[in-house]
Amino acid sequence: MYDVDEPTVRVRNIGADVAVGDWVIISDDGERVETVIERFSAFTRRASFEGNRAVAHTIAANIDTVVLVHSLTTPPNQRRLERELILAFDSGARPVVVVTKDDLVDDPAATIASLEAVASGVPVMRASGISGTGVDRLRDLVPPGQTMALLGASGVGKSTLINALVGGGDLLRTSEVRENDGRGRHTTTACELVRLPGGEHGWLIDTPGVRAVSLWSSGTGIERAFADVFDLSERCRFRDCKHEDEPGCAVTAAIAGGTLDPRRLDAMKRLVAEEHALEEEQRAWEKAQDKRGMRKQRPRRSGAEG
Ligand SMILES: Nc1nc2c(ncn2[C@@H]2O[C@H](COP(=O)(O)OP(=O)(O)OP(=O)(O)O)[C@@H](O)[C@H]2O)c(=O)[nH]1
Ligand SMILES: [Mg+2]
Ligand SMILES: [Zn+2]
Hints:
alpha/beta; six-stranded mixed beta sheet; binds zinc ion; Ribonucleotide Reductase Protein R1, domain 1
C-alpha cells in the first residue's frame, strides 16, 4: 500500500477527473493517473453559472467532515450558508459550521444566532486561528485516518485556522483582507492537503475561497438543509401546496405567526427552482448524447437499398 509518509509523488493527470482527497492508482511508468478509486464522499458544485452546459466541479473528495467557515467580522450570510449546507449534505460528509475571528468581536451572539437559525441542526462553533479559541475542539473532529475540509469565502480565515490546527507557524500563506470591504484577496489558489502532526494523524484540506456556491447534485440536500420548512409542509392541507395563498397552509401560517422567516421560504423556492432547471438541463444534454450515440450505431445502408 502507498506509504503516506513517503514524499509526494507528482504525476501527470491527463483526462482523469481527480480532486484533492482522491485515492488513485498510478500507471506503472508513474506517468499517469490510471484509476480514481470510488469516492465515499465528494463536495461538488456547478463549475460555471453561465456556461451553456453545466459542468461539475468536485472541490474535494473523500472528506469525513466539511467545515463551513464564516467570519464574525462580516454580516452573517444566511443565504450562502444555506447553499453550502445543501452541498455539504449532498456530499456525504458531516457538516459543521465554524465562525472565525472570535478574537475580533466582543459579542458574537447575534451573528451566531443568525447562522444557527438556518443551520438545520448543524453545530455552530466559535474559533480563532489567531488566539487559538476553539482550535482543540476542531482538531478533535479529525480522528486518525479521517479528513476534514475547510470551505468558505475568501478571507474568512481558512488557511489561518489550518496553520493553527497543525500547531502554529505559517505553513500556508495568508493575507490581509481588503480594507474597504473586508473581502479576501483569494490568497489560496489551489486545494492543499495538510497532515496533522502526530503518529496517528488526520488530514486537513484547505481550499481557495469561492465567491459563488452553485448547486450541482440533486440528492436530498435541500430537504435536509430546509428540514424545518419541509416538516411544516407535511401539515399543509394540500399535498402539492405551493405555500402561496392556499387555505390550510402550515408554512404561510408559520410566517404569519413569526416563527418562520419569509426570506427563508423565498430562498428555498429559488433553490428548488435552480435544482429543477439543472435537472432539466442535464436531461436535455443526456438526450442529445443518446441521439448522437444512436446515430453512430445505426448501420450504413448500401446505395441499392436506399
Ligand atoms: N484576528 C484574526 N484575524 C484572522 C483570523 N483568521 C484569519 N485572520 C486574518 O484574516 C486574513 C485572511 O485570512 P486567511 O487565512 O488568508 O483567509 P482564507 O480564508 O484562507 O482566504 P483565501 O485563501 O483567500 O480563501 C489574514 O490577514 C488573517 O491573519 C482570526 O481568527 N483572528
Ligand atoms: Mg487561504
Ligand atoms: Zn403550504
